[in-house]
Amino acid sequence: MKLTALNASELLGISADTIRRWDKKGLIKSTRNEQNYRFFDIEEIKRLQNKLHGTSLNNFKILKSSQRSQYNVIELFAGAGGTALGFENAGLTHALLNEFDKDCVETLKGNLKGVNLIAGDIRNIDFSDYKDKIDIVQAGFPCQAFSYAGKGLGFEEARGTLFFEFARCIKETNPKIAVGENVRGLLNHDNGKTLQTMVNIIQELGYKVKYKVLRSQYLDVPQKRERLIILAIRNNLDIPFVFPKEKDYTVSLREVLIDCPPSDGQKYPKKKYDILKLVPEGGYWRDLPINLQKEYMAGSFHLSGGKTGMARRLSWDEPSLTLTCAPAQKQTERCHPSETRPLNIREYARIQTFPDDWNFSGSLSSQYKQIGNAVPVNLAYHIGCCLIAMLDNKIDDDTMLVEN
């Protein structure tokens, strides 16, 4: 049942402002009608109430299918293996993985035994041996501007970018489906010209294209992380575009960090420690005394904007804020909810839904970077399940949405 915040508050005995605050924090979802009024799902609010009162079940688990599909994948820019593991957990098999970063390569070798991994520059790989043998090509390519975006040069327009290598792999292998993954910011990069150029190039290669922003906190990931997913289907195939359907619950830090094994992690210098120990759970710099606000923020104190990532302590009862490549950057602080320290390596990994036995190679800073850059494993699992459903043409209406 969908109700306004006011009607829901009267029914459940909580304030309308509390419901709106939960919506703003991304703990519940709202929809808008034609008059732009927000409506909320009563059952979703009840679930959050139960969670906050400690009466709900633990929703955290690393998702894994018991069945294998017949479909294979070439994955480019594999990083620390978040997408690779999620796809494998969904039932897909990798024909080839490629990664350039040496530490990421060692991480992949140590965790994905027996997988065909090509380490090195993607520009040196010839994919033509896989022509018409691949079901899915996937790539989390970096967002780069095109020198001639919008000039109508087509495929050659992207040459020199890593997206070009993704497009080249599609051209050389002719997969049934191609999947691109990137940050939400790609939507507006260069006023939308970059994304439109990418779409045009994929269409030129013989594919239909749709894209959608997925919100991880509604897809079994204890983190408010948004990713842009680009799906491309070969023109001669009559199969639907399918994206994961958002859940009516989120996973909190309390659920994901319970019994988390100890590990190495960054530490605060004494001055920063003394400041952050004064910040309450879920708080940030505005919760400090005014003299310490000015001292800690320095010149930023007088700048406009919320600056809510500064001196930020996470909350036990919410998903984490988006993990970055380091947990103690001043602009994007990720302080433990109750201990005065940055999140450590295993906590970072759990929030990205890596299993505890997934080990990361390299220095401490490299491990943080690998995890922070990864696609959450459970998010990749949901995408992988949708890809299998597309190829089987068997859609699970409870967990998937068909985009016409």
Strand content: 15-25%
Q: Give the fraction of residues assigned to helices.
A: 25-40%
Shape: globular
Q: Which regions have little confidence, pLDDT < 50, spanning 5+ residues?
A: none
> At the third CATH level, what is the topology name of the largest domain?
Rossmann fold
Architecture overview:
- The chain has 404 residues and is α/β, with parallel strands linked by helices.
- It folds into 3 domains: 2-52, Multidrug-efflux Transporter Regulator, Chain: A, Domain 2, CATH 1.10.1660.10; 72-249 and 376-403, 3-Layer(aba) Sandwich (Rossmann fold), CATH 3.40.50.150; 253-373, DNA Methylase, Chain A, domain 2.
- It contains 13 helices and 16 strands.
- It has helices spanning 5-12, 16-24, 42-52, 82-90, 102-111, 162-173, 193-204, 253-257, 270-276, 290-297, 345-351, 364-373, 377-392; strands spanning 2-3, 30-32, 38-41, 72-76, 93-99, 117-119, 136-139, 177-183, 207-215, 223-224, 226-234, 241-244, 320-321, 328-329, 332-333, 400-403.
- It starts with a strand and ends with a strand.
